[in-house]
Amino acid sequence: MSVEPLRKLEDNMNQDISTSATSGMDKMRVVGGVKLNGDIKISGAKNAALKHMCASLLTDEPFILKNMPVTLRDVATLSQVLEALGVQINLDKENSVATLHAKKITSHIAPYELVRKMRASILVLGPLLARQHIAHVSLPGGCALGARPVDLHLKGFEAMGATIELEDGYVKATAPDGGLKGADITFPLVSVGATENLMMAATLANGETILRNAAREPEIVDQGEALIKMGAKIEGLGTSEIHIQGVQKLSGTMHSVIPDRIETGTYMCAVGLCGGELHLKNTRLDFLSALISPLKEAGMFIEQNGDDIIVRRNGAKIKGVDIMTEAYPGLATDLQAQFMTMLTLCDGAGMISETIFENRFMHVPELIRMGANITVKGNSAIIRGVEKLKGAEVMATDLRASVALVLAGLVAEGETIINRIYHLDRGYENIVDKLTAVGAQIERIK
Ligand code: UD1
């Protein structure tokens, strides 16, 4: 079978998502002009948490996750997908603990109504195929970031012996008799999701799987470490070559999710923009090397202090710097919109090149409406510093673009109303409370 028709299908589905996302009625009101001072506790990483949740399908024993961002909408959405498959889930909001128990998988179908809300749902495919030998998963939705195919995932499963058909917008996958077979897979480009999906599937496959040109994100290492605690045999985590020796069975475990480096970086950019000093609690600087260098070059003070990061900008404007997004350990595309917002008030100019996703400059027209001076050419943007941003009514598009507009509102003169903040709730825990506690004037309105 060929996975080429996927690109077209996914384009259509992404349009569907962007339309449905626009129907959210909640708005955010921000009054700009205050410096940020105080403490913000960083949540567990969304992009690790979601993968751990999918990995719960690999075992019939309970999987307990601590430091879970349980109040995120993406966690709720994925919980619905997993519950539809038979997983029992308890989300303890007070203690940030999730317990997932896939004692018996009662369905192998992840339906469109649920999957369309979140692209990461495709990550149930690998675990289902590995344990149940069959999976029907609707093609995913998620942020409207141009074409986001899943061909690498599917080609990988085919290499492991699976038969894949595309029917009515669903990926219908069947493992060969006796289950998936280990395979030597070289990815033509680095994909976080494909690396994770295949790594999970390979834990229960027959024989050895080698993933070459694998992604190296900290969230993948975190997932691999949890799988190892469950009994998986994995070597090479954090490198571009991962070896997985399949085992018969995995057990339950308890695991603490790593801190969210994107949330951390977002609040760092907020300080760069607004000035002040934040103590970001319970997070790690070593995940953010590619962000720290340009932030320091721009004139910011950043230091790890035990489990906290101190980030400060007093006085002088930040200087214009150039950045390029890349796969980890390069600068995360998920921080690009926030970095750009910070540069709108820089001294001089900065250039941003986006190399991971097409269509990821959707925040630019909104920032321009607030007074920013930005020129986009292809996958690059030049940001010339202006004296000030002015509050305006703006529209949130994808998750990171939404938070970029919140940051812009924090520094803009007057009032900013951000419409369609649905995406923000997918990925930022308690953002209103966290920012209010450090001096921001921000509220959610209907
Ligand atoms: C993950 C993150 C997302 C982040 C992205 C890149 C989660 C839930 N999401 O998304 O926040 O922005 O990594 O760091 O963890 N590609 C293909 N074919 C495929 C798969 C990917 O062509 O089968 C392309 C994509 O279109 C994109 C690039 O590869 O251009 C990287 O995508 P990928 O790393 O797979 O991103 P996600 O795992 O979807």
Characterize the structure shown:
The protein has 446 residues and is α/β, with parallel strands linked by helices. The N terminus is likely disordered. The chain is elongated and about 65 Å long. Strands 22-23-1-24 form a four-stranded mixed β-sheet. It has a four-stranded mixed β-sheet with strand order 2-15-17-16. A four-stranded mixed β-sheet has the order 4-5-3-14, with helices on one face. The structure holds uridine-diphosphate-N-acetylglucosamine (UD1). The site of uridine-diphosphate-N-acetylglucosamine (UD1) has 20 residues, from helix 2, helix 6 and helix 7.
How many helical stretches?
A: 15
Gyration radius, rounded: 21 Å
Strand coverage percent: 15-25%
Note the quaternary state here: single chain
The main β sheet shows up as: 4 strands, mixed
Spans of at least 5 consecutive residues with low confidence: 1-23
**Mean pLDDT rating:** 92
Which shape, going by the Cα principal axes? elongated
Helix content: 25-40%
